[in-house]
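Need a sequence for this fold. Nothing fancy.
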């Protein structure tokens, strides 16, 4: 029974490690192709300019190269039309509260804190009808109708929030709370539309590293040495959960935008151009350092995890060219190429499916199995 349990722990460890690698690669793709900033723009265009397209899907489709055939021309015209119609969104992104979050000019932020959103929206709405009175709460009341007439769903939402608020501070708090709830939905859209890419990455990893769950399960079960080292590695990870957590829970872009928000608040309270310029310089230096180190840090994480896994003796990868060595004809109990290929394909698909389930799931499962094993071996150690 202990061998079965240890085999289970070893497989869960394998799934956990490759789930982390899948997550890291997905993050690298999202950062380098700016998926999140495009998704955020589309979600705000959906909110502020009444664009009914699915936010992320639209942004990803717009990032793809277009065919120059005649059948594509109407779609291009529509896209151009929509760009011209995104008046509120463009105005919003030009506001100082949002510009401060941009690392470089014309580079849209991938994360906008609720406070920045609320302050920008209130100022924009207050300025929709001139002249301004100097009382922000009254100016928002006066400018709300003009803002709503300009298009977008948020005008009606803001009207409700305004009617239930008695002070500008209360209104800001309610806008921030509403925006945070909306961003939770946007996160759900993003995750739903990244499922396909995660599965593709997981399948590629299963093939590149030859993670055939069926054959590896047999190897782990039969080799007590490999099994023992993998269980020890799993126990070490469970015992040091705090050091393992950053491997699969750190979102680079959110970290960057959080630092931008920190400096933006400092700049808002700073007095004098020199102090603001020094803060801007410090922010640019820190963000450049983060960006320059990000790819190498992520690659080091992958390398470290694979080295740890390799130290257990688990036979991953391709020791021979499967085509030239006659792999399919000479491996397996039946020595039948078609049957071996079917089993291998099933093993890879199972592995890919497990990798795409996510590191948090497998870490939780690994912790439970390790605790079951510990509770099972305690009586044997009692003298």
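Here you go.
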């Amino acid at each position: 029974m202990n061998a079965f349990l240890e085999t289970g722990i070893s497989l869960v460890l394998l799934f956990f490690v490759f789930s982390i690698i899948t997550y890291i690669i997905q993050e690298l793709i999202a950062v380098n192709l700016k998926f999140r900033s495009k998704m955020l723009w589309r979600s705000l265009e959906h909110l502020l300019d009444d664009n009914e397209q699915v936010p992320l899907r639209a942004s990803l489709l717009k990032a793809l190269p277009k065919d120059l055939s005649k059948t594509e021309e109407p779609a291009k015209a529509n896209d151009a039309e929509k760009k011209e119609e995104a008046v509120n969104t463009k105005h919003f992104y030009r506001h100082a509260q949002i510009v401060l979050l941009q690392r470089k000019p014309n580079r849209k932020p991938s994360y906008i804190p609720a406070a920045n959103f609320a302050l920008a929206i209130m100022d924009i709405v207050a300025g929709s009808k001139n002249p301004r009175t100097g009382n922000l709460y009254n100016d928002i009341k006066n400018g709300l109708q003009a803002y709503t007439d300009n298009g977008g769903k948020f005008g009606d939402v803001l009207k409700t929030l305004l009617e239930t608020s008695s002070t500008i501070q209360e209104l800001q708090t309610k806008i921030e709370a509403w925006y945070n709830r909306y961003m939770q939905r946007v996160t759900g859209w993003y995750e739903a539309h990244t499922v396909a890419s995660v599965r593709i990455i997981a399948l590629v990893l299963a093939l590149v590293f030859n993670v055939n769950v069926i054959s590896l399960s047999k190897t782990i079960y039969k080799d007590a040495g490999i099994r023992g080292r993998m269980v020890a590695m799993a126990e070490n990870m469970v015992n040091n959960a705090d050091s393992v957590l950053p491997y699969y829970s750190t979102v680079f872009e959110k970290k960057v935008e959080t630092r931008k928000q920190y400096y933006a608040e400092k700049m808002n309270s700073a007095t004098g151009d020199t102090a603001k310029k020094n803060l801007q310089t410090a922010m640019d230096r820190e963000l450049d350092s983060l960006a320059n180190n990000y790819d190498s840090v992520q690659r080091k994480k992958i390398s470290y995890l694979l080295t740890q896994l390799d130290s257990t003796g688990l036979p991953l990868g391709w020791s021979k060219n499967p085509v030239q060595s006659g792999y399919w004809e000479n491996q397996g109990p039946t020595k039948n190429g078609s049957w071996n290929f079917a089993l291998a394909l099933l093993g890879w698909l199972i592995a890919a499916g497990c990798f795409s389930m996510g590191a948090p799931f497998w870490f939780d499962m690994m912790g439970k199995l390790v605790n079951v094993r510990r509770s099972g071996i305690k009586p044997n150690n009692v003298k």
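For context: The radius of gyration is 27 Å.
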